Amino acid sequence: MNGVHDMGGMHGFGPIPIEEDEPVFHEDWEAKVLAMTLALAGWQRWNLDRSRYAREALPPAAYLSMSYYERWIAALVDLAVENGLLSREELREGRPASDSERCDPPVPAERVRDILSRGGPTVRETSAHPRFSVGDAVRTRNIHPAGHTRLPRYARDKCGEVVLHHGAHVFADAHAMGQGEQPQHLYTVRFAARELWGDQASPKDSVHIDLWEPHLDAQ
Amino acid sequence: MTGDNHIHDHPHSLLPSDPELRVKTLESLLVDKGLVDPAALEAYIQVYSEEVGPMNGARVVARAWCDPDYHARLLADGTAAVWELGYSGRQGEHLKVVENSPELQNVVVCTLCSCYPWAVLGLPPAWYKSSAYRARVVREPRAVLKEFGLELSEDVEVRVWDSTSEMRYLVLPERPQGTEDWSEEALASLVTRDSMIGVAKAIEPGRAGQ
Questions:
Q1: Quick check: B41 and A35 CB within 8 A?
Q2: Three-state SS across A67-114?
Q3: What share of residues in chain A are helix, strand, coil (percent, to 5)?
Q4: What is the band of B29 on the pLDDT scale with cuts at 50, 70, 90?
Q5: Contact between A147 and A153 (Cβ < 8 Å)
Q6: What's the DSSP call for residue A130?
Q7: Which residues of B are annotated as catalytic?
Q8: Mean pLDDT, chain B, as a whole number?
């Protein structure tokens, strides 16, 4: 979606907030947010792409005014309600509904390290032949879907060159929208900085973006 | 999928406005319902506070500096080479290593969210997740690098990697001069998180306190 999250190229955000010797978490509650987000994913009611979309779908003003982990908690709550893990009543009251049955968490402490070390690989087998090869000239599509997309706005309708082919991967744009994995060939496309930003960019520089086949046309 | 309904209807607004209170309320609700195991929450926090961090990536880089075969394997298949050292898993499932040289500086960003190679670098720093970095580094990488203290000559090529899929990027920085007889362990101490994102060089030996 053309949300405020799609920030590449925007002006006005000021200098980079560099912090010396930054702690992993600035507040204990931030650590809890990370942990709750990972633990609730164990219910498998939504996937990683869907949770990214939930963060993007926060209203732009709210998105910008929230800190990083505040966005995570907001998206997590929205997903939990949308997918039936919590009710609005329970959120309002801060306790389980009287008729709520106690569940058995799918991720007990002893499984955490194993789950994290396995991760969630997204490469998939496909019989579809890749449309593009390394070295091919491609043009990104000019799309503006209301749903999730991993084609950033600054790189739409731009010409680039395929520099890597990663095989087929879960197609995030579909997966986030509950349309299944729909594996598609994934490429890294090199864009000259001047193609994206005009003459103000250095002629030597480039931006490389991972894009799926449905984002690309032959040039 | 509820489409627009989802976008305009936000249950999170039912929680208290103070973040700390909001998180406490949610945590106790989740625990009371049995949706999460409190010990599992502690385990997740421990992993990312103490066990997984940039020291993993630093060992990968130091090994590549010392062992030409490993160096070749790392560039050919980053995922497999990092697995060899035991650094696998979440946000590191598919790893591509890009190498710097005197003529080339690679820099990594995720303009859309905060994608980052957790398995080798741990959780990203706040600046990596900031609006300023995400917005600017694709458009004016040299100005951004300068803010990190890295001023590049116009002759140096800058390649920015915008991580939009589950591919994760790790920058292999240049090995500092004067470290020819250093041990792998000592070399790892020169490799910073920022140098593996590409906004800095590895530490020069004279400045490492060695």
A1: yes
A2: CHHHHHHHHHHHHHHHCCCCCHHHHHHCCCCCCCCCCCCCCCHHHHHH
A3: 35, 15, 50
A4: very high
A5: no
A6: P
A7: 110, 113-115
A8: 94
